[in-house]
Structure formats: C-alpha cells, structure tokens
Amino acid sequence: MKTTETHYHAVQFYKDEGSLASTVAKFLVDGMNAGEPGIVIATPGHTSSILRELKALGADTHELRRTGELQLFDARKMLSAFMVNGLPDPLMFRSNVGDVIERLCANRLPCPIRAYGEMVDLLWQEGNETGAIRLEILWNQLASTYDFALLCGYAVGHFYKETRDSRLEEVRDQHTHVVAP
Questions:
Q1: Can you tell me the distance from the alpha carbon of 20 to that of 33, in angstroms, rounded to the nearest whole number?
Q2: In whole angstroms, what is the distance from residue 100 CA to residue 123 CA?
Q3: Distance CA 50, CA 48 (A)
Q4: Residues forming beta bridges with residue 150, ordered by sequence position
Q5: pLDDT digit string (tens) for 56-109?
Q6: What is the dihedral of CA 108, 39, 139, 159, to 10 degrees?
Q7: Which positions ≥6 away from 173 have C-beta within 8 Å?
Q8: What domains are there in the chain, each with its CATH number?
C-alpha cells in the first residue's frame, strides 16, 4: 500500500537500445541501493540488455531474481492480460499489475518500488496511441494506491511517423519527468 504522496512517473524517448538499457539499469540500481525492489516489464530483447547493464553496474541479477527483489515480465504477455478491444481494461490492469506489486511487497511495509515498463511503447508502435495514453493514465491512477517510481520508454523514431505534435504532448503530460538519454 502507498505510504507517501510522492509520485515519480518519468519517460525516456530513446534513440537506441543501448542508451535505454543504461538508463533503466541505473534507475533500478539507484532504487535497489535504497532497498527498493524492481520490476521490469519489457520485451525479451530489452530485458536481456537491461540485465547486462545491471551486471555491468555490479548488480547480482541472479541473486536479485532468486530473492524476488527483481522481477521480470514480458511486456506483450502482460498487455494481453488486460487489453480488451484494443484498450486497457481498468479493472483487469489494476488486478494484474496491482497483483504483481502486492506479491513483490508481501510482508514489507513500507514498500516503495522501482518499475520500468514499455507496454505503452508497444501500443504506440502498433499505432494504438489512444491505448498507450489510456495505459499511462491507468499507471497514474495506480500510483494513488501503491508507492512506486515508474520509468517508461518510447522509441523516439515512432513519434516522427505521421504523429501529430499534440499526441506527443499528451504522452509528456502523463509524466512528471522527461529523462534525457
């Protein structure tokens, strides 16, 4: 359960996977050094890159995963658990993602966590900008219940393909911070 009113929801518009993995790994390690467990909801390729970067920063990823301090989820599988007719279902999202947080924080209060997610980027890449923005809103609503810092990643190249500036602004508006690559 949420113990503070702090809400950190950042976005990184990345040009290459290396800069993304480096930013995510540093974000997670900073949290782990403060005793905050981590969640990664990413594609398998990005998860592998993030794990390599975590190791390069000195994190024992095998031990973190063994103890449950670092939990990894496939972004496409997670999305399939709560998408209905092309849009995220609020109750199913809360049930699925909230359950992940509940399990991670079992017997631990307070329990601030660090989470990285790219489900929104997958939706954006598929041309489902409305679904992506609604998912960002659901994350913001979830922050009223749980204490987490969230970092989202969007491939910057997808914003130049017939995307109106107002849609990019809608994405930015859902975040408290924009992280430089």
A1: 20
A2: 21
A3: 5
A4: 9, 115
A5: 999 999 999 999 999 999 999 999 999 999 999 999 999 999 999 999 988 888
A6: 160
A7: none
A8: 8-179 (3.40.50.300)
